[in-house]
Every structure is written in structure tokens, then in C-alpha cells.
TrEMBL record:
It comes from Hydrocarboniphaga effusa AP103. GO terms for molecular function: oxidoreductase activity. SUPFAM superfamilies: FAD-linked reductases, C-terminal domain, FAD/NAD(P)-binding domain. InterPro entries: Amino_oxidase, FAD/NAD-bd_sf. Residues 61-333 form the Amine oxidase domain. The lineage of its organism: Bacteria, Pseudomonadati, Pseudomonadota, Gammaproteobacteria, Nevskiales. It comes from the Bacteria. This is Amine oxidase domain-containing protein.
Amino acid sequence: MLLAKATQTSALDSRLTADDAELLRQMLRAWGDLDADLLYKGSARGGHLGDEILQAGQPRPPIDLSELLRSEFWQFQMEFAEGWEQHPTMMQPVGGMDRIVKGFESRLGGVIVRKAPVTRIVDGDRKVRVRYRHNGAEHEITADFCINCAPAYLVKDIRNNFSRAYRDALAVVHPGKLFKIAFQGRRRFWEEDDRIYGGISWTDQPIMQLWYPAHGFHKAKGILLGSYTWDPEQGEAWGRLRPEQRLAAAIAQGEKLHPGYGELVEKGISIAWGKVPYQMGCSPEFTPEDRARHFPTLQTPNQRHYLVGDQMSFVSGWQEGAVRSAHAAVEHIHHRVASGD
């Protein structure tokens, strides 16, 4: 509305012709659902009071501008879905994102060695040796190349002979402090009571948001995300609580969004990535200065050692980044082998 008003003054004359100003005014009227006087007095987009199908609907009255500004919803939640990494439609593997991992696992058979923490990496001109502990004994494997997807902030603490520049680059990567809670609904109350089908409810409480499933509509039960926060301080605070304390706190906060929430959900589970052994965080992070200085070093192999994963992309925290970085490493190795290296 304010921008539409500005088109009626000389404020935009230096940028717009009279015809362009009129076209902009028409666009803003359509976009903002303004009346002939360029005022916003409510919109059908905000829903109606009562039945708008069999009766003439009465638009909800507009919320006062100062109240909207004080809500701080505009800071990032309002345009959250407009981010390039959040655009719909986002495909989901049936059964959850770990189905992708299980798919690889089913084809690799006995190649995977579990419960085998790496203790040393020795990189060389022609070979790379990796030592690991398994079933109480030390083992070593020698290979032409090593593709390493362990977090850089953990790799730096493994004994190695990497170059000084490579070790310095590993040291600047820090773990993200993300945290999530999920609940199973005793019934799909968000659909039955509130007609919510997918999407997010935002809150300024520590849980930050509730995510509703975009699948399984009208089934008996469903899983909803009872909290998802990436704020470092909040993530650490949640991580300090015992699992049962986390669930109790999330239920108490969810009550403000869905009255009776505690009786509507069951079988909760939480994950504080900073507490997960051999991961100790997620979505590895660089400061802008460290990324500019050290990221290229880590994207370049240290002799025959390649660091991969979402950390070696500009979309940390996304499987797309992990897969693309692995593809880049394999392609680089292919060219080295093809050239006789």
C-alpha cells in the first residue's frame, strides 16, 4: 500500500515514466488486493468469517500494520518458502529420507564395516593407508584413494600426515547445532480440527516451528515435527536437557498452538545432533572469511585423500550437497586414473 501511494507522487519520477508508474500501480493493486483508493481493507486471500461457500463471505478485517511489524513474522518466516532451497514441490522418498541410505546399503552388501572408528590416515604419493579399530583390534586398509565423508571438525583430530594448509583448513570448520523433535499424533488433529494439510506453524518459543506432514492425508495417524531449530544457543539448550525433559517442554509449548496438545500426541523422539557419537553436530559451517580462504583448499584433494559431504558444498545440511560433492570427487579420480596417475 505504501509503495502504491508513492507511485502517485514524484518520488519515483526519476526511475519511472508516467506509463510505467501506472502499470506499477495496477500491479501493486492486484498484488496487494488494494481498493480503488489504494487502501487495503481486507482480502479473500485471508479467509472469510463464517461460510463463504453457500453464503456471501465476509472477509476478515485486516490486521493493524503496527501489530504486523511488532510480530517480527516478516523477518524471515514470511518469505521462508521463497528461498531457492525451500521451493515446492520437494520430493520425499517413501518411508523417509534414510531410505536413500538404505538403498545404497542394500547394493553394497558386505562392503560396509560398522563400528569401526578411524584412528589414523596416512596419505602418500601412490597409496593411502587408513587405520581403524574394530572388534577390539586394530586394522589397516590400503587403497589408491580415500573418499572421506566424516565431518571436517572430527577429521582434524584423527592422526594424519596432511599438509599444514590442509590441517589449517580442517580446523576452521564448525558443527551446526540443529535440533529436532517429532511426535506421532493419536489422530491427525491438525487436519480434522484445523484443516491444516502440510506446511509450518511458526512460534517465537524455543521449539521455533511445527511441521505438518504433506503425505498420508486422512489416515488414522501421522507424524509431525514438534520442533526444528537451527539457532546455536537454542540447539545447545535443548541438548542439555534429558530426552524426557525435551518432550515435556515441546508439549507445553505446543499447547499454545494446539490446545490439548499433550493429549493429542504420543511416542515422541528428539535428536540433538551435537550429542550424536562420531557426528557431534550437523550442517558443518564456515565463517564467510574462512570459507573464502580455506574452502578451496578442502575441495582440492590432499594427495590421495578427498573430503566430501554436504560440508564440501554451498548447501550444507542437504543431501544434494553431499551427493554432488561425491560425484565431483569420483569424476576427479576418474580423470587422474585415466591420465595414468
